[in-house]
Amino acid sequence: MIFNYNDFGLFFIVIDKTINKEIFLLRIGVKKNTYAEDMFSRMYDGIFSELINLEEEYETYYQIEYKSLEHFLFHKFCVPDDVIKDFLKLKSENEDYTIFYKKNIYSYGDYGIIRYAFETLYDKITNILLLKDYEN
Amino acid sequence: MIESFIIGLLVNLSTEGGKLTLKKLLNSSDLEVQINNAYERALKKWSVNKEIRRKESFWTATRLKQLFEYIENPTAETNFDKSTQELIDYFYQELQKEQTAWHFIQSKHFKTTITKLNTLEQLLNELKNEKLKPEFVFEALKYNAKNQIKRQISSGKYIPNTFIETNELKDHLRYFVTPLTFYSKIFTETKNLNFSHLNRINKLNEKEYFSFDITSFKEDISEFSYNEIFQETSKIIDYLDKKHTELEKQRSNLSYAFTRKIENSKKSFEFINSKAILLTDNAGQGKTNLLCDFVDNVLLKRDIPTIFLNGFEIDANEIGNSIARRIFPNDNYSFNEIVDVIEKHSEKKQLIIIIDGINENTKPKLFSKNLETFIEAILQKSFIKIILSCRTEYYENNFQNLINASFKNNIKLINGLNNRLDKRKKEKLLWTYFNYFNIKIDSIDEEVEKLLVDNFLLLRIFSEVNKNKHLPELTHIYKTKLFSEYYKLKVKEINKRFKENDEFDIEGNISISKFIERIAEFMISNEVFHNIPLDEILKDNNKEVYIRFLDENILLRKDLKQSQSSIFGRKEVINFTFDEFRDFIISDYLINKLYSESKQQFEDFIKNNLTEQSPILEGCSIFIYSLSRKINDNYLNDFLKEQPWYNYAFLKVIFNTPDKEITSSDKDHIKQIFIEDKSVAQQVSTELNYKRYNSSEYSNLNINLLFEIFDTLTNEQFNELVYPVYQNSLDDLIKQLYKILDKLKPKHYVLFKHLLYFLPLSNKVKKLYYDFYKKTGNTKFLKDLLQVKSSNIVNEINKFIEEYDIQL
Description:
The complex is a heterodimer of chains A (136) and B (808).
Chain A: E1 2-4, E2 11-16, H1 21-28, H2 35-48, E3 52-53, H3 54-62, H4 69-77, H5 81-91, E4 97-102, H6 111-120, H7 122-129
Antiparallel strand pairs in A: 1-2, 2-4, 3-4
Chain B: H1 2-13, H2 16-26, H3 29-46, H4 50-57, H5 61-72, H6 82-97, H7 99-106, H8 108-131, H9 134-155, H10 169-177, H11 179-191, H12 196-204, H13 226-248, H14 253-273, E1 276-281, H15 287-299, E2 306-310, H16 319-327, H17 335-345, E3 351-356, H18 364-378, E4 384-391, H19 392-399, E5 411-415, H20 423-436, E6 440-444, H21 446-453, H22 456-465, E7 470-474, H23 479-500, H24 512-526, E8 532-533, H25 534-537, H26 543-552, E9 556-562, E10 570-576, H27 579-597, H28 599-609, H29 617-631, H30 634-641, H31 646-654, H32 664-674, H33 678-691, H34 703-711, H35 715-726, H36 730-742, H37 749-756, H38 763-776, H39 780-785, H40 791-803
Parallel strand pairs in B: 1-4, 1-5, 2-3, 3-4, 6-7
Antiparallel strand pairs in B: 8-10, 9-10
Helix pairs in contact in B: 1-2, 1-5, 3-4, 3-6, 9-15, 10-11, 10-14, 10-15, 11-14, 13-14, 22-23, 24-27, 27-28, 27-29, 29-31, 33-34, 33-35, 36-38
């Protein structure tokens, strides 16, 4: 799942941290050396570009100030309670599910590819990022 | 012997402990004055340059000790230059001219005392060293910071857990205070900045490849000294600067987004490298709240040595030593002695000095000058950093020298703390306040919520007044009642604080209510409602106490105003932080004081000042009418009714008055003005239909009054006063009623009675009402409406009954 704080601001996402580009493209089902491979490869780069592991950041730099990850999300980033609960519920399903964030959802610079991923293909992409089976 | 005494004497003079010892020894302040005078004269002979003399007069123990060691033993090798030796010679000559001092210094009695004193001093030094153990010093710092936080909580300037991180500001402060921790975070984020999309587009456009790589700089700085971190970060900043310029040359929409990324990284590194921060903002914007939150949740939790003081707590003449006295109030350690201990034992943590509200110092000009010198001196030590906060206009008037000082490249100016909060953050703040003040609210009207989140001062006032209360349903903010209670609460609280403790550190009795009354009196008698001259209000002995009150509270604030008599001068004036509160105070004075003292003056003021262009018209008309209801004086009521603003104030107040306080004459007045004015008809219709349809909630003033009015209206009056209100919104109303019909409850029935009055307007009304009839079998409303004056409505009801074959 994703939580987009506002149109050009913070962006949070839960991802299976074991995913890599190869798995991503395999799950998408693109053929090698095609335009589709190039496009989804850029999509992967766009999603993962400048992405920060929020949980690692919390443990390394902020744990001393905030007593839990929930507090960190609520007080530092102003993530609403219900979203935090959804994040944690999702995380409880799989120990590899990790919360990431980036300061600007479009920091990669390719607005179109990010919109395509998280608007048009939202369910498919978020399921792949969690390495979940997705049936269209 | 004499020379050696002078050395001891002057070395001691430079420390607070020394000064006190000297005073005890000499038993006369004349001697101390004479010695100081001699030194000042020596300085004048020595240099004609005021600035050099000022700097030389800023003594430090180490410097003086070195200076006078020379006199004690002129033949010993020293590092003094010719100029310093000249100064010493002048001083020696000038001291001899001070008869009392010179004779006393030469006397036998004095020499005996000196011997005793030396023994005593030795003992004191031993005790001093014992108390200046690092654990005591760090404990004292923590105690001081926690105490400052407690004081700000009790003054209401700090509300724990209400600071909302709106942007990068708090992170920037984190980078500033603990560079060793956050350097790696910023480094990694900068290293990961991605320019591949830019380069892909550049390639397509046959533009140059943009390279970006900071891996040649050190990523791990854990073993670095402060200076090494500073140097490494400076190199990275230079690199980012270069890259920024390179990218700016590309000048495309895409490159702009990428330059922003570099700017943000550069800014983060700059906070690592800065030595001082100056936060400026207008009054009441949360500077103290931010700094307290920062000390409470960042510095103390991270165990960073912190000195946290307010500008008014510092002696402008002796900044360092007055800070030292705040940390060790019962001892005479110098600032440098304390700093030395911290430096030796801070384990790579920096010492953070925070001075909140430098504008609150009682001698701002002197403070500003000496603060610059003080910062210059302390920033020589790389482990010290300083954060200052200041009201914007006072910064512009008194403290701009700080940003142009010798350390200008190492000071960051942050102007404006709170960028506009978005809706989510506002809501969060609202519930954080309710939580902090222990206010339980089961349901809150959307409009009331908006009113509170859009005006934090009102939220603050509301929260303080309703502390520890359970408000089942919050549908209105009764401002007259709210301000009245808040005013009483604050006056009681502030007077109590003045009387019961020495928190303000000032002696004297004051009466806040009299002070505010004096302001109201000034405003009314001079017909001036802002920029009230401070000197006109503060004429008595307790001026300083009132100034502290002005700095402390949120009701009033001191401002600087350009003086009309001089282009250079600015004078201090008083303003109300919240215009509505000012209007309340004026109204309260008018109704409860001036009216009983002089009806004529009261009437003249109202006639002359509550006019169309007046800044106090909107607020005062409402409060005057609202307060007049409490005293219920016929003469006053008649006078107010004659005022052109009366109906405006009446309607504003009546729908914000507790339902049980509405009288039958209020209702009669509503009926009367409804038929006189189209806009009144619109306002009353909306209030009674949309907000007061539930008669169990509003048993007195509710939708039934609207029906009473409707029943007496003619066809023409309906066409003129009622139907235009719904001309564009009838379809929406019908849609809403269909939704209500799905979950219909008895309290909603009256809404369908209201609908029936619009039968002449649309067939959709008939259809909807018939659905309501089928569901409830209600015929009473149809019978009721057959009795109304409007023949159009009666005809439509008859047709409807016939068409749908309804048996009454």
